[in-house]
Amino acid sequence: MDGAVAPKGTGGFDVARIRQDFPILSRKQRGKDLVFLDSGASAQKPRQVVEAMTAMMETGYANVHRGAYLLSERATEAYEAARRAVAGFLNARSEREIVFTGSSTAAINLVAHSYGRGVLKPGQAVLISEMEHHANLVPWHMLRMSHGIELRVARVTDAGELDLADLEAKLADGKVGLVAVTHMSNVLGTVTPAERIAKLAHAHGAKLLLDGSQAAVHRRVDVQALDCDFYVFTGHKLYGPTGIGVLWGRMELLESMPPFLGGGDMISEVTLEGFLPAPVPAKFEAGTPPIVEAVGLHAAIDYVQAIGMPAIEAHERHLVDHAMQRLSAVEGLTLLGHAQDRGGVFAFALDNAHAHDLATLLDRAGIAVRSGRHCAEPLHARFNVESTCRASFGLYTTEGEVDYLAEALGKAREFFR
Amino acid sequence: MFDDLRDLYQEVILDHGRKPRNFRRLDDADRSGRGDNPMCGDRMQLWVKLAPDGRLADVAFQGKGCAISMASASLMTETVRGKTQDEARELSGKFRELAMTGTCPDCGASLADEMERLQVLGGVSEFPSRVKCATLAWHTLNAALDNEGKEVSSE
Fold first, then answer.
1. Where is the Aminotransferase class V domain (chain A) (predicted)?
2. Cβ-Cβ contacts under 8 Å, B44 against chain A
């Protein structure tokens, strides 16, 4: 691969060289350098991803699993190669445990519909946490309303960590069939202790789904070591394209689940009287899948693996420490969450400026942050704030950008004085 | 760093944002409405007391939101007081045009002084994601006058 590769064994991480792979980062916004601190919403794309997708469309595109001609066979091979790459990325036992979906949201909805209605029984409970993204909350509300499932919510501590004692108490009666929690909060940056949650869930007869939309971007994920049962993540936060997400599930669970969407490619036999579903994973991939997007995701995985997830994690750990130091020193700034184990996501509020006014100011300085509730309304209610701004880092974020943010926040406070 | 933002955040807007006028509940209101920008978390409730001749005798609001939405609501309550309901609706339409386009070609025809006062919020048109902050109060006023009593969203 012609890309950013960190020198092996030195722990070195050449962020300047990495930034050259992302054409958008060298663009000006109203004459100012772009300081993109909204990677938690969606990350920018390296040239390697763009080129892989373009090449696929220009030279190798056809529908998959259908044609008995060379181009379709090649497209099928590229699509299945992406599945193998994802299996390697998550250390899945088998690539057949990888289901491509449209997004993390679609993957969680798949589990809520298929596992939720097909395997869970009315009267059983699903246990989530207070810090879930709406994508890991609303599907369970829908299941509660349609299927008589009880929805339980584990509390978050004032420091922004998952309250494990509360989680365990809510598992105690054995009614919880599924624990569905984030692996890293998109607001607080908190990384949850997934192995411990898996042990607690399993000890009480529940399965564990981890929402890895944020975590998979920042940490090496090993689903076997985590010992979870489902893991979901999305392409567009991992420097890949929109329109593709991943559901990993233990084979025996995926096999026990009924299909979710019906259509082409998910059947082994169809008559006017009925159908036989295809084996996993085709059973869950009805219709033409996101073929070009799978190729883009494959390129994104190759890209981060060439740099190395441990090197990315080390770079971000350094940035997080630096940001904690710089942001804590901004007068009038409140940071949401102070978890021991956290990633590069910082939600904050300024004492004399509303989040939207602050975001407008930062935008004028060239800084892109998200403002609002970040699809986590109950969590904002938990911390008693209407809305916050959120700065989230990617592998291309620099210490200088963090300094610039801190400086801009100080000036914004003066502006509203 | 932010000097060119003084067009949007003029002193009068910052002042009304910090100290919104008519920021109170009207217990004997004849009309009321709720407004909500779900994506931002901005929320307001608006009350209107009508005079015997149907004019807006008093208009007050309470809520939470950014400087733009609070200032816009504050200026609105001052601007529509004493107006007929038709005039208030006309102002609402003109203001929304001003917020979206920055200009209001018909504004000179009637209610010119009132629109002159609201011109301070015209800068918001250059910030497409902020237009809804400025228009929330006016949407809420329309809902209150229609007395639907239901929540409006300016998404």
1. 35-405
2. none
CATH, range B14-146: 3.90.1010.10
**Angstroms from B40 CA to nearest CA on chain A:** 5
ipTM here: 0.87
- Which of the residues B7, B10, B64, B66 would you substitute to probe the A interface, choosing the one with the greatest number of A C-beta atoms within 10 Å? B66
pLDDT at A12: 65
Active-site hit among A181, A246, A299, A375: A375
Instruction: Return the pLDDT at A197.
Output: 98
pLDDT digits (tens, 9 = 90+) for B78-136: 999 999 999 999 999 999 999 999 888 777 778 888 999 999 999 999 999 899 999 99
Q: How far apart are CA A397 and CA A44, in angstroms?
A: 11
The answer, yes or no, to whether residue B6 has pLDDT greater than 70, is yes
CB contact residues (below 8 A), chain B span 84-143, against chain A: 127, 130, 133
Cα Rg of chain B (Å, integer): 14
With CA atoms as reference, the chain B residue closest to A376 would be B39
| Stated length of chain B | 155
pLDDT tens, residue by residue, A314-353: 999 999 999 999 999 999 999 999 999 999 999 999 999 9
Q: Based on DSSP, count helices (H) and strands (E) in chain B, helices before strands.
A: 5, 4
Question: Which strand (E) or helix (H) includes residue A170?
Answer: helix A164-171
- What are the structural domains of chain A? 15-46+308-415 (3.90.1150.10), 51-305 (3.40.640.10)
Whole-angstrom Cα distance, residue B141 to residue A272?
A: 57
- Of A381, A382, A389, the C-alpha closest to A413 is A389
- Chain B residues whose CB is inside 8 A of the A354 CB are 65-67
In this structure, the number of other CB atoms found within 10 A of the CB of residue B3 comes to: 8
With a CB cutoff of 8 Å and minimum separation 6, the contacts of B116 are none
In sequence order, the β-bridge partners of residue B37 are: B42
Whether a cis peptide bond, with omega within 30° of 0, leads into A281 is: yes
Which tokens belong to A169? 């108490």
Summarize pLDDT for A53-88 with one digit per residue, the tens: 999 999 999 999 888 899 999 999 999 999 999 999
Q: Are B2 and A361 a contacting pair at CB < 8 A?
A: yes
When CB atoms are compared, the residue of A360, A380, A387 closest to B127 is A360
> What CA–CA distance (Å, rounded) separates A176 from A169?
11
pTM equals 0.92
Active site residue A389: no
